[in-house]
Amino acid sequence: MLAGLCEDDMTASLETLRQMAQRLGATISVLRERVVVEGENGDAAMQKKAAEILVRKVPDDQNTIDLRVAVLGNMDAGKSTLLGVLTQGELDNGRGRARLNLFRHLHEIQSGRTSSISHEILGFNSQGSIVNYQKLQTAEEICENASKLITFIDLAGHQKYLKTTIFGLTGYSPHFAMLVVSANGGVAGTTKEHLGLAMALDVPIFVVVSKIDVTPKHLLQKTIDQLEVILKSPGCKRVPMSVNSEDDALTAASNMTSGNVTPFFTVSNVTGEGLELLSKFLNVLPPSGSIQEREKLMNDPAEFQIDETYQMPSVGSVVGGLLTKGTIREGDRLVIGPTDEGQFIPITVNSIHRNRAPCRIVRTGQGASVALGSSFKATVRKGMMLLSPCIEPQPCLYFQANIYVLFHTTAIHRGFQATVYIGNVRQTATLEAMMAKHSIQTNDNATVIFKFVKQPEHLHVGARLLFRQGITKGIGQVTQLFPLEQTTAHR
């Protein structure tokens, strides 16, 4: 039960709170205000109000609060168009103009379908206002003016690019997933598959229903009913929440970290309907993980997983990815690997870029590009790691995992091959052994030993894995590693 404050007390309390926040290096903004006690005979001076205040403090060792949001959904659902409207600040013309800046290849522009992983940023300042390319020209300016930065990971919706989508979910470790559903298309195609992948990786989900401007009301309601049935089903066990007001958006954002509530928004990229509520939700969406967990990871030796590799003129080899532990500074000496022979090569960090702007340090949970220098001639591939020299890396060809088969048409036996996704690792592996069972089928569990087909990889016990071969899919967790030296000696 809220007692509320009169106008003078509310003003004084907000001023006190503002002064306290200023001394702590934080900012405050009023999210919502509500009258809880009406004045007698409509006297406004006798009203009592309650207010919800957002106190935002950027950590001392960071420029912004960073969030990563993976964008999922079936092809033609409007994922890239939605991101274009949010990040560019201009509505779409109904023919996909807003998405053109997001495409990376000519064939994507020609077909209108995303086939690669692209990143776009959206900022919010301390007052909750959007900071995007509408008024600013470069990503560096957005980073300078924003206190909170959301990196959208735009993933492919077509079935034939599913391996790219899975790699984006496992390799980039998003904090949240935004599932985009076309209102006139319904829950079709790869939508259910993307939903299942996000749930298998324990990524909290919120849903955006797009194209409501061209969808009849009865068809829109049918799509919403479909979503509610799927989210409430025994396989999902989620509580769908329709966001129709600012209060709903704030309540949904505060409940996202619980994992049970799945808010859904209805938006139009042409008329702009619903976009303000989505922006409000993104502004107050809290980062996952506690400060204590983050500090613990930051004190660990550096581990940087490589998701992209480049060759730049006059710069040399450049690797892009995510720092999962520790910190990396310019001039640090690290090791990179494993190579095809399982070796790790010493390197020196020449320069670092974040959000297309140079920086001197990268911290836990931040994505960056690291230049290795023109003198580095070894072959670099996705799936490698940059590690602190104090870590004793143990690359392995063989590893043990507990797996659960989501779907398989017949039975899985020893010798079965599938593409295995573990973090930034994506490689074909052979099932070499199965404990206490001769075969497993759909909905079966088993403890198995996998062997990578091509080269050893750097893994961690406890890492989540996905495996896929055609329509066969399964999930699991790494339970034991067999380092390369041990398996070679055993032979």
Would you write up a description of this structure?
This protein is an alpha+beta fold and 491 residues long. 23% of the residues lie in helices and 35% in strands. The chain is built from 11 helices and 26 strands. An 8-stranded mixed beta sheet has the order 5-4-6-3-7-8-10-9, with helices on both faces. It has an 8-stranded antiparallel beta sheet with strand order 15-14-20-11-12-19-16-17, with no helix packed on it. Strands 21-24-23-22-25-26 form a 6-stranded antiparallel barrel. Strand 22 and strand 23 form a beta hairpin. It is globular and about 85 Å long. The chain starts with 6 loop residues before the first helix and ends with a helix. The mean pLDDT is 87.
How would you summarize this macromolecular structure in one to three sentences?
The protein has helices spanning 7-23, 79-88, 106-111, 139-145, 162-171, 191-200, 217-232, 246-255, 275-284, 291-298, 484-490; strands at 27-37, 48-56, 65-72, 118-124, 130-131, 148-154, 176-182, 205-210, 239-242, 261-266, 303-312, 316-325, 327-329, 333-337, 345-348, 351-354, 357-359, 361-363, 367-373, 385-387, 396-407, 417-422, 425-434, 445-452, 464-469, 472-483. By secondary structure, the protein is an alpha+beta fold.
Count all strands and give the number.
26
Quaternary state reads single chain
Strand content: 35-45%
Give me the secondary-structure category.
alpha+beta
Count the DSSP helices: 11
- End-to-end span in angstroms? 71 Å
Q: pLDDT average, as an integer?
A: 87
Q: Spatial order of the strands in the main sheet?
A: 5-4-6-3-7-8-10-9
- Main sheet characteristics: 8 strands, mixed
Helix content: 10-25%
Q: Categorize the overall geometry.
A: globular
Radius of gyration: 25 Å
Q: Are there runs of 5+ residues with pLDDT below 50, and where?
A: none
